[in-house]
């Protein structure tokens, strides 16, 4: 397994001084472009012909992790910035992103075609990066800390930044420290890690897809008429008890608004436009309607009651539309962290 192989490599690295890789001209040029960054590197690469671009791109895609001392040897004029910045990482995705800044897509595809191989590294890491961050974090928790560091060094920084906090403070600190100190991982060991990821990737992706589908179904069922939902719910509970429980935990309906504290509910009521609130309450149960009214100050409560009494008959379709609008607005406020939506696993008791 990749973990065992990387453990052996890590022990060997600690037992002896690591040997520096012998770098050729294209590898040194690739380091230069990585140090310059995407914008300046792109401007400079535009001055090269296609053959030179292909050589540098090939070198960059195979560069892997280059530690700071070796970067310093190659780039003496950047000594100070490199020493402060630490290691740099060259990968297929980095090379591709740089090229696409200034070359047409078809030309980039031609340049990268011979480099990528039968199972493209960019596909592997791109697919891995698209997996839900919780799934990635749970996967890495079962790996050796050095393996986790090697993997997170090959994904985009924004992905790694979302995954690391989910691993727990202690493990996160260990992984970050390994990433900072990481020496170049031997290519054969990196291949083992990639092969393991290819094997595990589909299972992780399937788990992520399942969780995403639960969220999708929760949002879909939220839109159902209450009577229709009550009709199909018992059947789903009987046939798919575990999955349907997970979906219900992700659902948030109009009736769930009474679980909000008074200030949060008042904030929702103040923010909905026009006659959305009175129409929504006309179709609500007495329990829900009474809670809404209790939250309001006396004058506002009397005005809302008068408006509901004087508005005449209301279509059920209009009631459902108004209630969904209030639910959607409550979710928007929660996403903006103005209010907090209740969850089924929260304790009911206050301490």
Automatic annotation (TrEMBL):
Compartments (UniProt record): Bacterial flagellum basal body; Cell membrane
GO MF annotation: an example: cytoskeletal motor activity
GO cellular component, one term: plasma membrane
The organism's place on the tree of life at top rank: Bacteria
Protein topology in the membrane: Peripheral membrane protein
A Pfam family matched in the record: FliG_M
Annotated Flagellar motor switch protein FliG C-terminal domain residues: 236-341
Family: Belongs to the FliG family.
Function, as annotated: FliG is one of three proteins (FliG, FliN, FliM) that forms the rotor-mounted switch complex (C ring), located at the base of the basal body. This complex interacts with the CheY and CheZ chemotaxis proteins, in addition to contacting components of the motor that determine the direction of flagellar rotation.
PANTHER family associated with the record: FLAGELLAR MOTOR SWITCH PROTEIN FLIG
Name used for this protein in its record: Flagellar motor switch protein FliG
Native species: Pseudooceanicola lipolyticus
